[in-house]
Amino acid sequence: MQFLYHLKSGDEIIEVNNESFLHLKARRIKIGDKIIFRNFNDSYVYTYECIEILRRSCILQLKEKKEKKSQKQTNFHLALAVIEPKNIEKILPFLNELGVFKLSFVYMDFSQKNFKLDFTRMEKILIESSQQCGRDTLLKLELFENFQLFQKAYKNIVLVDFEGEDLSSFDPKDHVFLVGSEGGFSENERKKCTKKARLQAPFILKAQTAIIGVASKFII
């Protein structure tokens, strides 16, 4: 862990419980140990000292507050047709670690409408990821009920499809790359969006593989 997240980081006294406390117990935390915390709301790093260990939590006191230069943001925006939630949850840490700025979820024609996304659970996954990789922000998430609403919000959409221009011909600063669900996009969706890009993969990719590939192509 590069740091631990606590919503009240910055307060004189904080109490740590649940998963964060279990992590500290695994590290065999002792009275006097110092732990670094962040709150994702400011640019400060907070150093706390453990002053009391209880049965299911521990109490820490603020010892140092230090401003840290904000990390460079990529502003890289990806979109993904809604797929099975468990598969989405698996890719979130990868996209967060790569530094993707925003991920939009869109219910497309081939999305199963019974799939419901748990944003509270996904935020928890992203917090865990940022604690591990040291990212001082979280990947931003948003949801659109259909492709039409997504097109109203963004005018520079590129469908990552089985055909089209080479992906590298599009500037990621000026475009949003939308990866379809299994089966790609419907003919109606292809007609509504004239910009299309293809990946140079030799085989058919799952949606979760394709979106990580797109992110890696431009960021790494």
Write the layout of secondary structure elements.
Layout: E1 4-5, E2 13-17, H1 18-26, E3 34-38, E4 44-53, E5 57-67, E6 77-81, H2 85-98, E7 102-106, H3 119-133, E8 140-144, H4 147-153, E9 157-161, E10 165-166, E11 176-179, H5 187-192, E12 196-198, H6 207-219
Parallel strand pairs: 1-3, 6-7, 6-11, 7-8, 9-11, 9-12, 10-12
Antiparallel strand pairs: 2-5, 3-4, 4-5
GO cellular component, one term: cytoplasm
Main location: cytoplasm
Protein name: Ribosomal RNA small subunit methyltransferase E
Description of the structure:
It is an enzyme of class 2 (transferase). It is found in: Cytoplasm. It comes from Campylobacter peloridis. With 220 residues, the chain is an alpha/beta fold. It folds into 2 domains: 4-67, Beta Barrel (Ribosomal Protein L25, Chain P), CATH 2.40.240; 77-219, Alpha/beta knot (3-Layer(aba) Sandwich). The protein has helices spanning 18-26, 85-98, 119-133, 147-153, 187-192, 207-219; strands at 4-5, 13-17, 34-38, 44-53, 57-67, 77-81, 102-106, 140-144, 157-161, 165-166, 176-179, 196-198. The strands form 2 sheets. The protein has a 7-stranded parallel β-sheet with strand order 8-7-6-11-9-12-10. The chain has a 5-stranded mixed β-sheet with strand order 1-3-4-5-2. α2 packs parallel to α3 (119-133). It is elongated, with a radius of gyration of 21 Å.
